TrEMBL record:
<dbReference type="InterPro" id="IPR035937">
    <property type="entry name" value="FPG_N"/>
</dbReference>
<dbReference type="GO" id="GO:0008270">
    <property type="term" value="F:zinc ion binding"/>
</dbReference>
<dbReference type="GO" id="GO:0016829">
    <property type="term" value="F:lyase activity"/>
</dbReference>
<dbReference type="GO" id="GO:0003906">
    <property type="term" value="F:DNA-(apurinic or apyrimidinic site) endonuclease activity"/>
</dbReference>
<dbReference type="InterPro" id="IPR010663">
    <property type="entry name" value="Znf_FPG/IleRS"/>
</dbReference>
<dbReference type="Pfam" id="PF06831">
    <property type="entry name" value="H2TH"/>
</dbReference>
<keyword id="KW-0227">DNA damage</keyword>
<dbReference type="InterPro" id="IPR012319">
    <property type="entry name" value="FPG_cat"/>
</dbReference>
<keyword id="KW-0863">Zinc-finger</keyword>
<keyword id="KW-0511">Multifunctional enzyme</keyword>
<keyword id="KW-0238">DNA-binding</keyword>
<feature type="domain" description="Formamidopyrimidine-DNA glycosylase catalytic">
    <location>
        <begin position="2"/>
        <end position="115"/>
    </location>
</feature>
<keyword id="KW-0378">Hydrolase</keyword>
<keyword id="KW-0862">Zinc</keyword>
<dbReference type="GO" id="GO:0003684">
    <property type="term" value="F:damaged DNA binding"/>
</dbReference>
<keyword id="KW-0479">Metal-binding</keyword>
<keyword id="KW-0234">DNA repair</keyword>
Amino acid sequence: MPEMPEVQGLAQFLAGKLMPDDGAPPARVRDVQLGSFAVLKTAGVPLSALSGMAFTEVGRRGKFLILSLEDLHLVLHLARAGWLRWSDSMPDTLLRPGKSPIALRLRCTEPAGYGFDLTEAGTRKSAAVYLVREVSEVPGMSRLGPEALTVDQDQFIAMLQGHRSQVKGILRDQSFIAGIGNAYSDEILHAARLSPFALASTLDDEQLIRLHTAMHSVLEAAIAAAAGKPAKELKDSKRREMKVHGRAGEPCPVCGDTVREVSFADSALQYCPTCQTGGKQLADRRTSKFLK
């Protein structure tokens, strides 16, 4: 699932393409086609309204990618398996809804041929597209918590003290802190040397400071690694940088212990027993108990 660093990388890449800083005019939309009618979550403004409009800004909020054009905003949420595929030469053929993994296609007139496809793999389709006049109209946007890298140490400690949930779930809660998902929460907890099942209310100030420091260092490193990369390279770059996430069965790069996994119905987490749980292996179920 694309998380804040990858969405930030996409925003930077698209800004460079759609609003070049070499004096060239910003790109203008030729047309937008739907390959999946279900991906469009708004009906107040038709996609055809984008035709001829110039891009004015590309930004991000949490995991939302925001493409601003004159007086409209095209907001994308890539969900679990969505991605953007850029092309300097888009095909002229019309999309056939339901016949490919392409959910949406945007083509530009200036520069001619530029554009991108929003693709979504798998059978569970949850990517979302919103065309709105105000970004605040996007459902879920108003519920987002502060951006992870804007939260200072004192604010972070105050937010977590007394919180009775597990830290893994707290970090992934977009209404608590925006932008962190399954992968980076694993990486942050590994860097902080904390169990994913630890309750926030049990952490002392020193552990909370470690967690805050890890959150900033992991995300800042990921953003730096994504900067300047084309869209097609961002996912592979993310995988290469992971220390524990997606690496079950491999040696921990810090201590050499075997990275372990806890599987749930629709996801899994990875952690290092030596670095994070005092050498004990977590039970593979939704509980904070250890295996006997």
